[in-house]
Amino acid sequence: MKEIAASQAYRLLEPGPIVLVTTSYDGKPNVMTMGFHMMIQHAPPLIGCVIGPWDHSYQALSETGECVIAIPALDLAETVVDIGNCSGDSVDKFQRFGLTARPAKTVSAPLIAECLANIECIVADTTVVDTYNLFILAVKRIWIDETREETRTLHHRGDGSFTIDGGTLDLRDRMVKWRHLP
Question: Mapping DSSP to helix (H, G, I), strand (E, B) and coil, where does residue 129 land?
Fold first, then answer.
């Protein structure tokens, strides 16, 4: 086996798909690309996400305590990367990238109509934000577009390379210890 730098661990363990995070601050919606997130708990559902002060969305999330995590599919791959290459402090990303903002039910941040799913969240815990830029979010509502033809998601491997989600393997009959989970 070949040893690689410890700093490359994220390239092997990236936990989930690249997502888009929307916020709304002073009536202005914004969207950012995010790869560092994780499920923390099943019930109530909690998500951890890293958004630092270098991100324009940090102030909006800190001030409002709410956001939407939108899950794009492969057909938005180039848009997802391009969103991550500019800042909402100088660009209206919804307009520039032709995204359709839809009102959420619980939060002021918008849903993104072009995404597979949208998860409305509120900040549940900020105790590790100052140390690790890690926001703990409580899931309030989830919206799924079951009519989308493209459902494959993107998983960032670093340096602009991605793994594309594919088929599924159903091993539910073997998950006897975890059957009680919804």
Answer: helix
